[in-house]
Amino acid sequence: MNLEGRRTSSNVDDRRSVGGGKVAGMGIGGIAVIALITWLLGGNPLSVISQADLGGMMTTQAEGNREFTKEEQELATFASQILASTEDVWTKLFKQMGKTYNPPTMVLFTDAVRSGCGNATSQSGPFYCSADRSVYIDLSFFSQMKNQMGAGGDFAYAYVIAHEVGHHVQNELGILQQVNNVRARSNEKVANEYSVRLELQADFFAGIWGYYENKMYGSLEKGDVEEAVNCAGKIGDDFIQKQAYGRTVPDSFTHGTSEQRTRWLYKGLSTGDLNQMDTFNIAYNSL
What we know:
four-stranded mixed sheet; alpha/beta; two-stranded antiparallel sheet
């Protein structure tokens, strides 16, 4: 993905040096594994968030500012450039819809963070908090994607960011609140189905972003689309459950199968057609 000379976003809150601190009693390896399982299996990564003490685990406050490696700084710049790109794309698309796009803030953190939705650790994985309209990400997650999932590549990382921004787009359009209201009135099975619909639409929106990013800037290079599609295939509920447990429990799916996630991402990437965004008025077994 060619981002040379591209602007960075002004809507980045970098808390990596002054964040919530490290989790005591657990090495970074343990955090990395739990982060992957939680983000990939959980219907809502905020399920590990506690209003009290980060899920009952003691934390130690980060001491002073730390210096970042060249790779860490490059990833921070990359994330900021991707956020800026989503701002460009969605501002244009909202204008075409006669609406005004109010972009989210991206919060970069290390190990732990306080969000408008409560306290969270890196175990949450990347997440969107509608309460403060912010996308949260510990950039070490990209290393986990590459080394533990086999889902590396800059466009795969961009897809993760664009997916979370997709939830913000849902919030801007009023979809997120409507779905949350329905889920609150539903039993667990139906609530999970609506979660899947919400996640697949966010995948579609990530694809829409990729389509217009390339149309506006010609940034995609050979292999980029394959990186994102490969990533989507490895974060399907069925794939992850088989890897973790050797079997699947479809009623517990909250993000969609590998086939569904790949297909909805690619639908957005290949068509750029927002008229195909509706994942809520399709029979569930036809998604």
